[in-house]
């Protein structure tokens, strides 16, 4: 049963390990964010203040054009972000996605895809990351990952899709919130930088060095986050639409259990590709929205269970054999 398999020690370790890896990748994500937006913004403001005669007189010092320093630091930050931090973050995310895939394949009894993932996550990677996470946070949040208990009498062939849909819908809602937050923040930062330029009436050269140069990393980060997450949301919508169509077919009992298993593997392939390629959601947003989103996810899963049971009572189908 899903309720039993998901709470086995090895699967609790897998959940802890993937969370720890994702958290490390997200912390690195925050470092990249701070470097490319707040740091550049502060440097831009300092550069403008150093050129102000009012500030110079107030501090009894000469004005100084530090535009070249700002441009150089912006370039250095861009190189560090793209060629050091980004590859590190991607490696951590791929490891986490592979461990999450192993958890799903075990709990939902889906065959492993050796073509997409010829090498399974190492035991050492799982154990070391799991110990690090559990020592800090315990295991309370890791039990009953999917909304199935021992009292749910839904066949495994059906339960798989309810769990897979839960994964997709939950992630989509979080990303929609994140896109809104990043969009607003990017707009506010842009307004502040352009306001500084207007106050100091910069020349074209000053505009390029004091505005365009510092804005490039920030603009690249914000635009990249919005673009990637919108593309991810679109992909998640496609996956969810596929599940909804399949769900109607399931309720009409038009597919055999073997055909459903094949569909589940295809769907899991899409979910894995999404996980390994999608941008990360910061932990602070995840924690803030987790309780609300999990309650919605659980209620949605319960509605799907009720739909299936209602159909089963009306016309027993071929999926009734087997436990979830």
Provide the fold topology.
Elements: H1 2-5, H2 9-50, H3 53-59, H4 67-107, H5 123-137, H6 156-199, H7 204-251, H8 257-277, H9 283-314
Helix pairs in contact: 2-4, 2-5, 2-6, 2-7, 4-7, 4-8, 6-7, 6-8, 6-9, 7-8
Give a short overview.
The chain is mainly alpha-helical and 324 residues long.
What do you see in this structure?
The chain is mainly α and 324 residues long. It has one domain (7-139, 153-314). Helices cover 78% and strands 0% of the residues. The protein has helices spanning 2-5, 9-50, 53-59, 67-107, 123-137, 156-199, 204-251, 257-277, 283-314. It is elongated and about 85 Å long. The model has no long low-confidence stretch (mean pLDDT 86).
